[in-house]
Specification:
Elements (H helix, E strand, L loop, with lengths): L3 H30 L3 H27 L19 H28 L3 H6 L1 H24 L4 H16 L6
Helix pairs in contact: 1-2, 1-3, 2-6, 3-5, 5-6
Bound molecules: MU-OXO-diiron.
MU-OXO-diiron binds next to helix 1, helix 2 and helix 3.
Length: 170
């Protein structure tokens, strides 16, 4: 059984993960209309991952006797000023999500809910990876410069493939 405070924190995270999914979906759609197929594919995949994150929270809350409420989501921006600015926004958003996950850990500690604290550890580690992967993208964009977006768009999915490789290091 979840305490009220832990349940509130988890339900609030359902909203944040769902918004992340919609945000990346909106970015993917924008990138697709701009002709960036690789970047849009990366973002569509990321949107799917965020939806799975949201579902993990929904199922956990329900499994522990709470109510996994699905909220109305704020509409994400439709247009983005450029690829680099957009990925800077992705990084800022992931840092916000990491802070939110840390807040859940803190609530669990205060409420002495060590079961949920243990469960949410998966997300703590996931956030390390997500931030790292967006920082890698920004590093590559810096090296290539905004004039080489064709190459970046062609190669971005290889970054994801490298991460998914079984021998990829953390
Ligand atoms: Fe599920 Fe990227 O935070």
């Amino acid at each position: 059984m979840l305490t009220k405070k832990v349940e509130e924190a988890l339900v609030s995270q359902i909203m944040k993960e769902g918004y992340s999914s919609n945000l990346y979906l909106a970015m993917a759609s924008w990138a697709e209309t701009e002709g960036f197929e690789g970047i849009s594919d990366w973002l569509y995949i990321q949107a799917d991952e965020e939806r799975l994150h949201m579902l993990k929270f929904v199922h956990y809350v329900n499994d522990r006797g709470g109510k996994g409420i699905i909220p109305a989501f704020e509409q994400p921006p439709i247009d983005y000023p450029g690829i680099k600015t957009m990925f800077e926004k992705v990084l800022a958003h992931e840092e916000f999500i990491s802070a939110s996950i840390n807040d859940i850990v803190a609530v669990c500690a205060t409420e002495k809910d060590f079961t949920t604290q243990n469960w949410v550890q998966w997300f703590v580690n996931e956030q390390i990876q997500e931030e790292k992967s967006v920082r890698q993208i920004l590093d590559k964009l810096k090296i290539l410069g905004e004039n080489n977006l064709y190459i970046f768009d062609r190669d971005i999915l290889t970054l994801r493939a490298a991460e998914a490789a079984p021998n990829a290091t953390a």
